[in-house]
Amino acid sequence: MTASSRAVLFDLDGTLLDSIPAFLAITRRACVQLGWPQPQPGYIREVMTLGRSPIEALLGPVDNHDALRRELTAASLDLWQEVFAGEARPFHDTLEVLQHLAGDGYRLGIVTDSNHFVVSQLTGLAGCPPIDVIITRDEAPARKPSPGGIELALQRLGLAPHAAVYVGDNPIDIQAAHSAGVRAFGITTGASLREDLLPHGPHAVLDSLSQLHAYLAEAPIDSQHKPATPATVRGELVSGLGEASGFLAVDWVHEALEGWLGGPIYPGTVNLDVGPDGAALVTRCRHDPGLRSFTLPARDTFCSALLHAVELTHGFMSTPALLLWPRVPGYPDRKLELICPLPLRASWALTDGALLDMRYLTVEEPWP
After folding, report:
1. Packing angle of the helix pair 20-34, 65-87 (nearest 10 deg)
2. Which of 89, 125, 149, 356 could form a disulfide with 111 if both were Cys (CB 3.0 to 4.6 A apart)?
């Protein structure tokens, strides 16, 4: 494995650049200009991590939300560049870590939803090593949690997903990395807390960039493709709460699922309890880039979701299905929700307690 066949990709704000105080300062000054109350403690986390509307986080529920948001945006745009340039700084270990990685032969990349001016606050500093690829919101096909920016960075580097890692301070960074098939690291130097990041299954959560080296030494980036090991888990059919049918009936959800499954879906899910051993296997498979998976992005009031292509079997009967994992904190690993092209209970004459085998499909296998 040559040194140039490995890459470390980074988010920028809150990861390489200590810019969260700058965003808060911009909001504070904008609020002064508008005569609004100052942001409360935790404002940045509410907006950047938890996805709360900036207007609601500042003013609470209001009737003229859109008009007020336009006012805040206009006030912020008038002063953001000056304030950002004065407030944002690299973290104390950013340049040292980048230099160390470059010296070890890693290719470096930045994938950010910010723009090139923000990037320049780091890359324009003396001591910053060359960054091999930079993808901002101007180049990425969509913002995170879409994997498009990471995928474009890998394409420009000529690397496969298993030859890179991605480090970010936000749950959407971890989601984007998983969707791109890249090993994900969370970091607590930005807006998010450890408990915000852990539910999204990062390889590890760092408290500083300096900790990354130990993890890379312990589990080196593998530039050689290793096919996924076929995995099968047995589960017991159990009754669900009937809450999934409304979600599956949403037009854009329904359309995406039918496209992935290759035809009509039954408007309900099959629930399997796989027990603690099965749950451990499911957790390991969740982030295996060699397994065929799809990402349903967050939209409207719905969170993002990861889906795996699987085959369900009971006796001599089998059907393709999609294993659904909503990306919400605390979602159980042992109780699986599966989307099928047929009413499984009626078609296969099943009742609670029936045992089914669920086999994950690899990216090399044919799929509807």
Report:
1. 130
2. 149
Question: CA–CA separation, 278 vs 295, rounded Å?
Answer: 22
How would DSSP label each residue in 224-275?
S--PPPP-EEEEEEE---S-HHHHHHSHHHHHHHHHHHTS---SSEEEEE-H
Q: Does the annotation count 138 as an active-site position?
A: no
Residue 77 burial (C-beta neighbours within 10 Å; 0-12, 13-18, 19+) = exposed
Tokens read off for 4: 């140039």
In this structure, what are the phi and psi dihedrals at residue 321, rounded to the nearest 5 degrees? -155, 170
- Rounded to 10 degrees, the C-alpha dihedral 207/213/215/219 comes to 160
pTM of the model: 0.65
83-100 per-residue burial string, b: 16 or more CB within 10 A, e: under 16: bbeebbebbebbbebbeb
> Taking Cα atoms as reference points, which of 251, 228, 234, 253 lies closest to residue 339?
253
Residue with tokens 């603690």: 276
List, for the chain, all residue ranges whose pLDDT scores fall below the cut of 70.
1-4, 222-230, 241-245, 329-330
Residue 68: both structure tokens together: 């007020």
Edge-first strand order for the sheet with 133-135 is 133-135, 107-111, 7-10, 164-168, 183-187, 204-206
Measured distance CA(61)–CA(134) in Å, rounded:
38
Sequence-distant (6+) residues with CB within 8 A of 82 are none
Return the number of other C-beta atoms located less than 10 Å from residue 272's C-beta: 26
Catalytic position from the list 11, 18, 113, 173: 11
Question: Token pair 């919400």 is at which residue?
Answer: 328
**145 neighbors 166 (Cβ within 8 angstroms):** no
Distance CA 347, CA 24 (A): 57
Q: How many CB atoms lie within 10 A of CB 346?
A: 9
Cross-strand partners of 168: 186
Mention every residue, 6+ apart, whose C-beta is less than 8 A from residue 246: none
Contact assessment for residue 178 and residue 186, using Cβ atoms and an 8 Å cutoff: no
Q: Which two tokens stand for residue 220?
A: 């080196």
User: Which amino acid is present at 353?
Assistant: G
What does DSSP say about strands 183-187 and 204-206: parallel, antiparallel, or unpaired? parallel
